[in-house]
Amino acid sequence: MNFLTKYFKAQIEKLGASILDVVGGLGRFSNFAFLCMYWMFKRPFRTKLGWEQFYFIGNKSIFIVALTAAFSGMVMTYQTYLGFTLISADGFLGPIVALALAKELGPVFTGLIIAGRCGAAMAAQIGTMKVTEQVDALEVMGISSHQYLAVPRILATTFMMPILSTIFLLVGSVGSYVVGTKVLQIDGDLYFSQLGVFMFISDIFQGLIKATVFGYLIAVIGTYQGFSVKGGADGVGKATNLAVVWGMVMVLIVDYFLTSFLVLIL
Questions:
Q1: Does the predicted TM-score (pTM) go above 0.85?
Q2: Domain locations in the chain?
Q3: 26, 147, 193, 228: which has the fewest Cβ within 10 Å?
Q4: Helix axis angle, 106-114 to 62-84, nearest 10°
């Protein structure tokens, strides 16, 4: 009996410690996000650093986003065609694929790519500066490390994600059209003829809103993990891994709740 009491006590203490750790982490993350939001509107504005991040996150990501979009559109078309031919509805293939790219595949796949590419880079760059005491040096010189390191990355990712998502939609639609008309032999004039019946401006807005929210979350998570690094190279590696994992997980989780919300208001 005494053994069982000690066992259950240990488990309860472990559970309590886990809950306190999660709550404490959420508090630290919320405080970090608030500080970044505060410094976004404070001078001096780091314009040069911002443009560097716009170039890195936007221009440097175009190729991988376009490549993913092209093959995503192609495979989506092929798989949808196999299902639609069973009910003789292959004439609706183009609009359905375009709708899926605009509302879901574009923002979600782009978010996963940016989380893996840019979220990891943010955590690694800031984490390396943290362990080499460069972040502390900024604070000693009277420069806010949040404004100097986090804000340009957050703004750049937030603004570039909708643009990259739009590129994903356009390239994916081209890939879909090529496979649909050249491989599956669907009439080119009819491929997107029903697009106006199925797709509206609100559907495109829904994808852009999702992409914007995903971009903000990815950047905040990536920079937060960089600032949270402890130790040496091992700590940087852990922070980079957490930035990628949590960035991708949050994209998928928030996508569901955003979809449920946006369907009601758009």
A1: yes
A2: 1-39, 46-265
A3: 26
A4: 140
